[in-house]
Amino acid sequence: MKSSIFLFAICISNFCLAQTYTEVNPPDHIKTVQLFNPQTNDQTPVARISGEYFILSFDDLNAGFHEYNYKIEHYNADWTPSGIFQSEFLDGYSSDYIRDYRNSFNTYQNYTHYRLQIPNQNTRPKLPGNYVIKVYTKDENNPIFTRRFALYDDQRVTVGIQAERGIGTGNLNQRLNVIASSGQVNLTETPDGATLFIMKNGNWEDHLRIKRPSFVQNSQLTYRDQNHLFEGNSEYLWFDTKTLEVPAMSTERVFRQDSLYHTVIRTDFQKWNLGYFDEPDVNGAFYIRNVRLNDQNLSNSQADYTWVHFALDEFDDAGGTKELYIVGAFNDWQLTPEYRLKKMENNFWELSVLLKQGYYNYQYAVYDQSTNEVSYSTINGSFWQTENLYQALFYYRPWGVRYDLLMGYGEVNTRN
């Protein structure tokens, strides 16, 4: 199967983003990059521009203080740089250095933990819209990693979103209907200035971008079409390394070798043909935890690292044209060599990754070289019953304005 998105005046942004924003993934010594949203208690990359904030954090395995700087840039709805002056979208400095850091304590793997709140007293975005934060050492044009986030104005536009079963799609899909309405902004004045962006579970890579509404009436834009579909996929898989002394339910065994822990996850197998299985998950999120600590905030610098060993029993790579990856919020759903499984004997596919202690959701992603498409359903299938969280971002560019404003935000859980 492939993760199909049906088109009706829709731009598939995986293609668009390849020409605009391209994420920079961290080098091997930078681990556990997390843009955490305290308001939602997960990695949802969207927050109110007034009164809410993000926490960006990461670990440097080259332990000891290193000066890391950051820079914030403003982007349009299609993730092209807006090109506007810094003073138009930001109060304070667009770049600064990260002051909050802490060395690891009582861990086998040494590291230094860095933390940054956005906005902060020195850097305060003032326009609702899309932003990219770059982290770099000396050259802002050569960042060590980037992350994107969005800030919305909750006073101008109300966004209502409804999820339902996709009709006539083989019980694979979920359909989204959205209504954007406002008593302050005349949305019918320039309907071409509107852009609706819907993503699933906070994954920027799994989304629809819709330019034209289905109906326009009385400053209300309705997006209701049979083709506004997402594959339901399956519930996320999970593993638990909050303790490294005894194996968790998803773990085959835990051992220590060469001064580091190793966690062997139970072998996965393909389930696409077994029907829907209701396994509670956290929609791809991850949480850094160490059960030995009374205060889980101490996990930032006192949780250890472990080599996590994944294995999948059988996969047809179509003569090497299909690539198999492990993805989730822990790697921002990025298909990088570090998370690509390799074929071993007896058609077993294996991967070993160094990850920090905690609770993780993950899924298998298959990249097809022949079609340039990514599927999240090849291994475990797609079902309309799957619990997912959809987020709708409504952008609007009023007449005469040179950039897109994120004027409304809504979300829906398919179980509600």
Automatic annotation (TrEMBL):
Classification via Pfam families: T9SS_plug_1st (PF17116)
Signal peptide as annotated in the record: 1-18
Alphabetized SUPFAM superfamilies for the sequence: E set domains
Keywords: Signal
Domain Type 9 secretion system plug protein N-terminal per the UniProt entry, residue ranges: 30-152
UniProt keyword Oxidoreductase, yes or no: no
Keyword Signal: yes
Record-given protein name: DUF5103 domain-containing protein
Organism: Moheibacter lacus
